[in-house]
Amino acid sequence: MTHPIAHRYGCILISRLLTLHYGELVKLDLDKIFETMPDFNIDHNGLLEFCYRVKTPQVYDPKDLEQDTVGARIYRSLISHFLDYQDIPDAVLLESIRLSLQCLLGRCQLTRTLNQRLGRVLQKTVKGKLDNADQENLYACISLLRHLFAGSTAGKLSGVENRVTVTISQIISLQDIHERLLLECFGCLRNLITKCDSAKRLVLDWKQYKKPCISILDSIRRMYQDSSQSSQVFCTIMEVLKLLVLEKTTRATLFKININAELLLVLERLFQNKETTRSRAIIGYFINATYTTDGQLAIMRIDARENKIHILANENMICILRQICTSDSLRLIAKATTLVRVLLCKSEKAKFSLKQSSFGITATELQDRLCTKYPGYISKMTKEASNGNELHIANNFTGALPEEEKRLLSEALNNAVYISRHLQSYSRKAGH
User: Fold this and answer.
1) Could you count the other beta carbons within 10 Å of the beta carbon of residue 256?
2) Are 420 and 407 in contact (CB under 8 A)?
3) Cα-flanking dihedrals φ and ψ of residue 28, to 5°?
4) Residues 21, 99 contacting (CB under 8 angstroms)
5) How many helices (H) and strands (E) does the chain have?
6) DSSP track, 215-260
């Protein structure tokens, strides 16, 4: 039996070789090794035990093993290690295995087979709840799909063609689902829709979901309103929404079903309960809602209205942003002021709305409050702001301040100065 250390370094070496080759950094002719791979039916050559996660000891015919190619053995070993090493505290090893699988699974047509396997396991839900072994089986297949989608554009398109979204919706709507499986499902979904607009549109295509199956978006809406969900699940859900809102069609759908109002109500509750991490995740969604698909700040029209002013149309939005700016949480203040700064960019209607609500005064008061709390900034701020430059940590700042807090403080101050200056400029131009 090979020593565990040899396993570890072998996985790391393979990962680096595959990353170099499939990243087209170095031509290593590795395709010759894998060109005689078997047909990747999950039930072929014992792969069932690895992908389907059967708990019985694995027994192979020595003749089958002798006939295996090097490529087949590498695939089998990687999948075995991936499933067996999930809980070990070795981030380097796990990342190496994941990178290898992303490189290799991306060139296999496994989507349909894995989706069918998931469907067979889910058929048991008709008779009752899934046991732990069934959930492990689901986890194994979803994990492989997640890595497949991360490593292949063709894999994403195959996922769209085979309606993997329906399967994911069935899994996340299960009762008593393990959080580990739930996170893996959303991770798989995130990889599927990243830089794939057809997959994003498919997620919001209600016609594909047949009763009693509910849509992915309906499950997401139920989860982010459920205060019992963990912060990790909540933030993962918001990452999915942040990707969906980047695409023009899905953005329009999200706006039409009034998801912004729902999230704003959740944000108000989270802020009152001082749940900073979740609050930042929701603000991140609103920031993404002002972007185009390439991530650049821009104005987009939905139902003949700018999406930025659409976000501000709810009077509670500016109210909650002002409340956050008066709080003591630098993490929230930095995120909220970034949202306001983004809204101001190239949007006269947003400037008018924020000016009418006296947000410029709020920004000035925030600036003064932060400078009073961190006096080392005062002389630096006056000099830099007068020249229209970005603010930086003052060299004469006294007192120990963590690097993360320094970054947040600079971000919040820069944003406050920017907001105040632009709203004052707008007032002068408008003659107010």
Assistant:
1) 10
2) no
3) -105, 0
4) no
5) 24, 2
6) -HHHHHHHHHT-TTS-HHHHHHHHHHHHHHTTSHHHHHHHHHTTHH
d(CA 411, CA 19): 36
Alpha helix segments (H runs only) across 39-131: 47-51, 62-67, 70-84, 91-105, 111-122
pLDDT per position as a tens digit, 51-67 = 433 333 344 444 444 45
pLDDT score of 185: 93
HSE (side-chain half, CA atoms, 13 Å) at 221: 15
pTM of the model: 0.79
- Region of 399 on the Ramachandran plot (φ > 0 left; ψ -120 to 50 alpha; else beta): left
Residue 43 is encoded by which pair of tokens?
């039930």
Query: Pairing state of beta strands 301-302 and 305-306?
Result: antiparallel
Which phi and psi (to 5°) does residue 101 adopt? -65, -40
- The amino acid present at 133, given as its one-letter code, is A
Question: What is the per-residue pLDDT for 189?
Answer: 94
Position of tokens 């709390």? 373
Residue whose pair of structure tokens reads 């309960």 in the numeric block: 273
Residue 30 near residue 17 (C-beta atoms within 8 A): yes
Q: Which amino acid is at 125?
A: T
